[in-house]
């Protein structure tokens, strides 16, 4: 630590982390806003205070260890920013979510998923020519190499589709070796378009494999969502009718899942990409991180939880009490969020669509009724109010997927399809950052101090 004595009486002049002149140093897009003062063992230090475009403040600790010898410790990075980003802004207290400055509510109403993907990846809403060219490029890259189709013959019928998705996406780097150079903009763009175009095909194939039906080829005359639905549900022996209500609902669901700043899977994509691993490898890692039931796997876990409640007579109060007791066998899936301490704006949009779709289909889903009752009971309960636990993006999405006939194991796969443009945008932003470094956090060691080696004959 610092050399000063423990009981220094005078406040020494603070050692200041030297923020390079002209702006806020390595953190592009922020502005300096004075300093934070830190005292360790009587020594005073000043660290630059940075502000982003939405007045979020951060203490720049990039020189902390150099000037103080200490590091920070923050399990799960609850209070730690890993980077700056111009892609998505969210305000958890106010329930605000914007992609590149546009409110999620506006994008969900005015755009389809391909247009929002363009916005996230290229940083602006496309002109009609740009959007047409993007749509055309994606629709002409939807097929996977015929040898990749044989992969599906090797997976067990009951393989979880997230395992298949992550494996096949990682394997894209074996078939498309002509576009792996992360420093070649043209190769990166080819990989981006291949991934965006092929993910729905790879996803649908894993479903078809699981039900023993033939893999259905993509069609270039269909939209992104229409194509996915026909690859999922069409069979060679009859015409498949694409329900426009389903394609609209799927567009909305993919849009609201498209990005969410530095969540677990996006941070994983950035972490893996920071080693200059290719895009396919980085996205495959993101798929694995998303699979966890605390993250993207929560939509599957939430529906399984609601099914359990319906089967148990719909006694939601019993499960709310279980959740409050922190019973290790039960957690209220689809509830709570690291950042949102208000209603997740995505959950609001999904719930409205859910309501409308079930009404249009004249469907009564006891699961939707139970979910609404559960929300009502939980939001009136002090435990949830005190902890600011609200329904999150995963609470109602599964009800819509079920209404569309999508099996529960495919729910995290739909989440991955939606999140892909966000992962890509963050991976690309990381590569273009002047501050780019390989991610390598530090630690505080708490194990044994130096020990003498004992030969095995002396060990007891
Ligand atoms: C996603 O980060 C993102 O942006 C993620 C995401 C995205 O778009 O990428 O939004 C997608 O992952 C949404 C979240 C999906 N996960 C779930 O629905 C699983 C259930 N939710 C929780 O496990 C939890 O809320 C997390 C994991 C989402 C957040 O956990 P945190 O931030 O680590 O919060 P915490 O676990 O410390 O909870 C704070 C308190 C604790 O109680 P105390 O220790 O203070 O007494 O709230 C309690 C928790 O026990 N709590 C819950 C709860 N979630 C939190 N209690 C009951 N049921 C819950 N669901």
Describe the structure.
By secondary structure, this protein is an alpha+beta fold. It is 48% helix and 7% strand. The chain contains 19 helices and 7 strands. It has helices at 64-68, 104-110, 113-122, 128-139, 146-149, 151-154, 161-175, 185-210, 224-233, 244-256, 264-273, 279-291, 298-311, 316-324, 345-360, 366-379, 382-386, 394-403, 411-432, and strands at 15-16, 31-40, 43-51, 57-59, 88-91, 96-99, 102-103. The strands form 2 sheets. Strands 1, 2, 3 and 4 form a 4-stranded mixed beta sheet that branches. It has a 3-stranded antiparallel beta sheet with strand order 5-6-7. Helix 11 runs antiparallel to helix 12 (279-291). The longest helix has 26 residues, at 185-210. The two termini are 39 Å apart. Bound molecules: s-citryldethia Coenzyme A (SDX). Residues 260, 263, 294-295, 298, 323, 326, 331-339, 387, 389, 392-394 line the site of s-citryldethia Coenzyme A (SDX).
Q: Please tally the helical runs, counting DSSP H or I stretches of 4 or more residues.
A: 19
N-to-C span: 39 Å
Overall pLDDT confidence: 92
Low-confidence stretches: 1-12, 18-24
Compute the number of strand runs: 7
Helix content: 40-55%
The general outline is: globular
Element-level helix/strand string = EEEEHEEEHHHHHHHHHHHHHHHHHH
Q: Measured on Cα atoms, how large is the radius of gyration?
A: 25 Å
Derived structural class = alpha+beta
Strand content: 5-15%
Query: What ligands does this structure carry?
Result: s-citryldethia Coenzyme A
């Amino acid at each position: 630590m610092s050399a000063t004595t423990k009981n220094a009486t005078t406040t020494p002049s603070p050692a200041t982390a030297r923020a390079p002149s002209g702006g806020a140093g390595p953190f592009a897009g922020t502005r300096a806003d004075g300093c934070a003062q830190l005292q360790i063992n009587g020594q005073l230090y000043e660290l630059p205070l940075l502000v982003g475009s939405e007045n979020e403040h951060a203490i720049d600790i990039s020189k902390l260890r150099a000037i103080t010898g200490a590091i920070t410790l923050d399990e799960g990075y609850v209070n730690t920013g890993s980077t700056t980003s111009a892609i998505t802004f969210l305000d958890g207290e106010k329930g605000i979510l914007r992609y590149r400055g546009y409110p999620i509510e506006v994008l969900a109403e005015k755009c389809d998923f391909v247009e929002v993907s363009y916005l996230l990846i290229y940083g602006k809403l496309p002109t009609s020519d740009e959007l047409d060219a993007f749509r055309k490029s994606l629709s002409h890259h939807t097929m996977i190499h015929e040898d990749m189709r044989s992969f599906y013959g090797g997976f067990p019928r009951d393989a979880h589709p997230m395992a298949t998705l992550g494996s096949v996406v990682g394997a894209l780097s074996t078939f498309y070796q002509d576009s792996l150079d992360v420093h070649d903009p043209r190769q990166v763009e080819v990989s981006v378009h291949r991934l965006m175009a092929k993910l729905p095909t790879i996803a649908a194939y894993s479903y078809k494999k699981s039900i023993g039906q033939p893999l259905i080829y993509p069609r270039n005359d269909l939209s992104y969502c229409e194509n996915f639905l026909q690859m999922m549900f069409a069979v060679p022996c009859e015409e498949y009718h694409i329900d426009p209500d389903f394609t609209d609902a799927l567009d909305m669901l993919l849009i609201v899942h498209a990005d969410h700043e530095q969540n677990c899977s996006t941070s994983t994509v950035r972490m893996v990409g920071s080693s200059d691993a290719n895009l396919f490898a980085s996205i495959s890692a993101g798929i694995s991180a998303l699979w966890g039931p605390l993250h993207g796997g929560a939509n599957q876990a939430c529906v399984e939880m609601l099914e359990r409640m319906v089967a148990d007579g719909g006694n939601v109060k019993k499960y709310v009490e279980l959740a409050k007791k922190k019973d290790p066998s039960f957690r209220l899936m689809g509830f709570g969020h690291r950042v949102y301490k208000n209603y997740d704006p995505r959950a609001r949009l999904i719930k409205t669509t859910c309501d409308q779709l079930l009404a249009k289909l004249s469907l009564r889903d006891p699961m939707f009724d139970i979910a609404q009752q559960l929300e009502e009971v939980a939001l009136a309960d002090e435990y949830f109010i005190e902890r600011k636990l609200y329904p999150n993006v995963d609470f109602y999405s599964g009800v819509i997927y079920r209404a569309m006939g999508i099996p529960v194991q495919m729910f995290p796969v739909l989440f991955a399809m939606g999140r892909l443009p966000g992962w890509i945008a963050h991976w690309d932003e990381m590569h273009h950052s002047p501050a780019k470094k390989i991610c390598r956090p530090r630690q505080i060691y708490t194990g044994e101090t130096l020990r003498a080696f004992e030969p095995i004959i002396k060990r007891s």
